[in-house]
Amino acid sequence: MMLKVSNLNKNFDGVVALKDFSLELKEKEIIGLIGPNGAGKTTFFNVLSGFVKPESGKIIYRGKDITNSGSHNIVFEGISRTFQDLRLIRQILVIENILLSFNHTNGENIYNIMFNQRSWKKIEEQDKQKAFELLEYAGIKDKANDLANDLSYGQQKLLSLICCLAADAKLLLLDEPIAGINPEMREKILNIISELPLKGKSAIIIEHDMDFIERICSRVIFMDMGEKISEGTPSEVRNDPKVIEAYLE
User: At how many degrees (to 10) do helices 183-194 and 117-138 cross?
Assistant: First the structure.
């Protein structure tokens, strides 16, 4: 089991955001997290990625308790995420955003700068090569030296996903990866996500587009008011009367 979340609870000023929420994720599995706005989906991502502390509950990731770990430690454990507002550094180049996502800091170590320059410069060149390979894989290698701010919205969404891959995360948390983008970019992002299990990675996806979820997820969890209401295959959840009543109709 890659991830086991047990009975998470989180309140904000008396408002319930998560209520006894539990989830299990296997290695190389992609699951969808759906529900109306305010259901607790992004709060769950914030807790899982260390930005928010739960009142109670437990998160076990690859056999390790990470419930109260900080966000920087979560990244080093192998969990990376995207955000609805993207969180790119728009004033720097596309390739620089990717280089900042790599999960080592050899060039920032004072010892390496002073005494081991050849080694860290070699690593920097390797990182740059990997960054170009990721951009080529995503089909935007020609944008490498553009400012991130000059990309289209869909390309910025794609870049955000590529930054997660650069971090070499084993678990990707993807918050509405195709919202507001054109069909061509949607297909490109879908293809990249669908190939994650082939690369030994798992993903949890928040998305309102059920057609997208059905194409890419083996299992779906429906949330409402911080609780898990339904879980199963996309078809089972879509046809669950409780889900139909709350959301899909």
Answer: 120
202-206 and 171-175 strand pairing: parallel
60 close to 66: Cβ distance less than 8 angstroms = yes
Tokens in use for 88? 């790119």
Strand pairing class (64-65; 219-224): unpaired
pLDDT tens per residue, range 6-43: 999 999 998 999 999 999 999 999 999 999 989 999 99
Confidence of residue 246 (pLDDT cuts 50, 70, 90): confident
In sequence order, the 6+-apart residues with CB closer than 8 A to the CB of 183 are: none
Distance of CA 189 to the CA centre of its chain: 13
Do 146 and 119 form a contact (C-beta atoms < 8 A)? no
Q: Which two tokens stand for residue 168?
A: 């070499």
In CATH, what number does 1-78+170-249 get? 3.40.50.300
Query: What are the strands of the beta sheet with 202-206, ordered from one edge?
Result: 79-81, 171-175, 202-206, 30-34, 219-224, 227-232
Question: pLDDT tens digits for 172-182?
Answer: 999 999 999 99
Asked if residues 207 and 34 have their Cβ atoms less than 8 Å apart, the reply is yes
Please report, for the chain, the start and end positions of each structural domain, with discontinuous segments joined by +.
1-78+170-249, 91-168
- Residue pair 84/175 in contact (Cβ under 8 Å)? The answer is yes
Strand order of the β-sheet with 64-65 is: 15-25, 3-12, 56-61, 64-65
Query: Is 10:52 a contact under the CB 8 Å cutoff?
Result: yes
Give the Cα separation of 137 and 114 in Å (integer): 35
Q: How far apart are the first and last CA of the chain?
A: 34
